[in-house]
TrEMBL record:
Pfam families for this protein: ADH_Fe_C, Fe-ADH
PROSITE patterns: ADH_IRON_1, ADH_IRON_2
Superkingdom of origin organism: Bacteria
UniProt entry keywords in alphabetical sequence: Oxidoreductase
Record has Methyltransferase as a keyword: no
Protein name per the record: Aldehyde reductase
Matches recorded under CDD domains: BDH (cd08187)
Phylogenetic lineage: Bacteria, Pseudomonadati, Bacteroidota, Flavobacteriia, Flavobacteriales
Amino acid sequence: MNNFKYRNPTKILFGKGQIENLATEIPKNSKILMLYGGGSIMKNGIYEQVKSALSNFEVLEFGGIPANPEYSILLDALKIIQDENISFLLAVGGGSVIDGTKFLSAATLYEGETPWELLTNKKPVTEGLPFGTVLTLPATGSEMNSGSVITRAETQEKLSFGGPGMFPVFSILDPEVIKSIPQRQLANGIADAFTHVMEQYMTYPIGAKLQDRFAESIMQTLVEVAPQVMSDPSNYEAASNFMWSCTMALNGLIQQGVPGDWAIHSMGHELTAMYGIDHARTLVILAGNHYRYNFETKKEKLAQYAERVWNITEGTLEEKAHAGIEKTDEFFKSLGIDIKLSDYTKDYSETGSTVAKRFTKRGWEGLGEHKSLKPSDAQKIIEMSY
């Protein structure tokens, strides 16, 4: 196991009715900007719960943050923060709203030429305006980590940033919110969380037995509860396990002491930037072929995954590893998710070469756990996924 340092300062309030406790988590006399997405919180009762809990605060609102938080829209919110002397941000939404709020937190205190430099200079962000979250869509884990991904439509870019200053002060996780989430988004959330675990797990053995079993338990739980969540989102037990699995998948715990891959995400972000495909679905498109292409370096963990998550005990190491990849594809398809790029766009013939050129331009010459995946390799994986 590798050396590591781990700290996660985010306070979690989990369970039914926790939104009522919102006011106790925000400093008194705070001037709050409440941020949300397309307005679903107006229909499912969350908006009223949050406003009621904050009745003794001055609260301004900014809605309309899209599913891929757009830089130009966030700049409008940034102006409000600066003009109105906002002192606390509250994200009420899923990962996109939370990611957008993290960007605003950092941008408010950023002293460089343009806030987009937060995405391009890759320097860890050490301070930001304090913020909390009310999670409405389990998926990304952004409610308990310090990372964020922002889209810029004018340049067709989707880039990430983060740092120790980007942890939420607190996050409220009420599993009852999933009752009103559409099937497509539920499927996306399950697939997103599952792939987050694989990016941190599907590398090579390093003797981190507990970390492996943490990761495997999250994947096992998602496989177990997925049919229940999809068929009956009002099942509180299933919803609770789903929500907490999504948070645990990317709160930093399972990545400690082990190598990480994240090449699937790097490629997937490009597909979203180019075609607007849901983030989770870009991961599904690429995952199986990424493992097939890098089979020799990943086969030991693939076989372990097949045994422990899918109970595949017969066959050689290679046979079990291949079976694990097939089970992964089948799982994603069982959620109603198409797994080929050609299912989402017919204009894909140059996608692989375009992504490779973008990676080269940014100097991304070594992706994956071994830092050996070249832009030309990414091109081949994407072409396999047509």
